[in-house]
């Protein structure tokens, strides 16, 4: 499949999907919140796989050993990852995004791809579609980045590593050049 200038793909990255899911459960139970980390077994080590904003402000990040994080901040709330619950939530959000386009795909573990070519005009254009989607995602309590480009790779890279926003088709080279190789 070749990318054309009329092809418009939106990458929605829910950058704190795991911790936002837990935060929503906390809100329902009125549980006192402390910095939250999600950990998982990687090889023989238990590593942080997600952090909420409060934990990030403490200097915690993905890839850090759980034991080290607990030694640094004993009051942390550490929850074992639940990939099934995250996948289920992502599927529900994907179904909800059908309001914008009939072509929505999950980009596990924490993203969605929407083909908005031919659909953005229904919202008044790409900027208005992004504003509406962003407002609704934020109101639902999710941290996110959105980017639009003429190819899946460029939209994904911009949402995950670059400056999120809308990019005109044909400008992908300029968009991707300053980004890290990964």
Structural class: alpha/beta
- Percentage of residues assigned to helices: 25-40%
Strand content: 15-25%
Radius of gyration: 18 Å
Strand count: 8
Quick one: biggest sheet?
Answer: 5 strands, mixed
Structure explained in plain terms:
This protein is globular. A 5-stranded mixed beta sheet has the order 5-6-1-7-8, with helices on both faces. It has a 3-stranded mixed beta sheet with strand order 3-2-4. The protein contains 7 helices and 8 strands, in the order βαββααβαββαβαβα. The model has no long low-confidence stretch (mean pLDDT 91). It is of the alpha/beta class.
What's the layout of helices and strands?
Layout (H helix, E strand, L loop, with lengths): L8 E5 L3 H13 L6 E7 L2 E7 L1 H5 L8 H7 L4 E4 L2 H14 L7 E4 L3 E5 L10 H14 L5 E5 L2 H10 L3 E2 L5 H5 L6
Parallel strand pairs: 2-4, 7-8
Antiparallel strand pairs: 1-6, 1-7, 2-3, 5-6
